[in-house]
Amino acid sequence: MDIKVVDDEIMLSDGRVIRMPVKQTEEKEKEKSKGKIKVDKVPNVWGSSAGAGSDYFDLYRKQRNEENERIELMEKRWKEYTQNQIFQISSQKKYQNRSSTSGEDEMVKSDKEESEEDKSDKMGTAHPVDTDTFLVVKEGEEELF
């Protein structure tokens, strides 16, 4: 069964009619959920509790472990994101370099030249990538800046 949308009509004093659509409950719920911003707040009430009882240590340890896991997950996602962005930029530059070459002689390469490029890629030679806009994280470091 289809539900018809009923329009509310308002007649102004000069004779004009203004129609205002009646909002459905689903639309209202969507609008409410759009405007909310979810903030992760982790209250650390056990940080400096000098005279706390023995049960507070277990609660503190649980909260600390959850927070550490959350931070590690955020760091992992950020690292994946930056690596993906760097890869996308390098692949776009390669594509632009290939499409910008003119002439069929330059576009067609011999198998030997292509295999040499593949070897250099596998050997680990770095491609010039503009990383000014990205945060580059070194593997051995623990802190992110």
In short:
This protein has a domain at 53-93. Helices cover 51% and strands 7% of the residues.
Would you write up a description of this structure?
- The chain is mainly alpha-helical.
- It is 51% helix and 7% strand.
- The chain has a two-stranded antiparallel sheet with strand order 1-2.
- A hairpin with a 5-residue loop joins strand 1 and strand 2.
Characteristic terms for this protein:
51% helix; mainly alpha; 145 residues; two-stranded antiparallel sheet
Summarize the topology.
Blueprint: E1 7-11, E2 17-21, H1 25-35, H2 55-100, H3 104-107, H4 111-123
H/E element sequence:
EEHHHH
Structural class: mainly alpha
Work out the oligomeric state of the chains in this entry: single chain
Number of strands: 2
Gyration radius, rounded: 30 Å
Average pLDDT metric: 70
State the low-pLDDT regions, or none: 102-107
Shape: flat
Give the helix tally. Answer: 4
For the biggest sheet, the summary is: 2 strands, antiparallel
Fraction of residues in H or I helices: 40-55%
Approximate strand percentage: 5-15%
Task: Give the strand order of the largest sheet, numbering strands 1, 2, ... along the chain.
Answer: 1-2
For the record, give the distance between the C-alpha atoms at the N and C termini, rounded to a whole number: 57 Å
InterPro entries: Prkrip1 (IPR009548)
GO molecular function, one term: protein kinase inhibitor activity
Keywords: Coiled coil
GO cellular component, one term: nucleolus
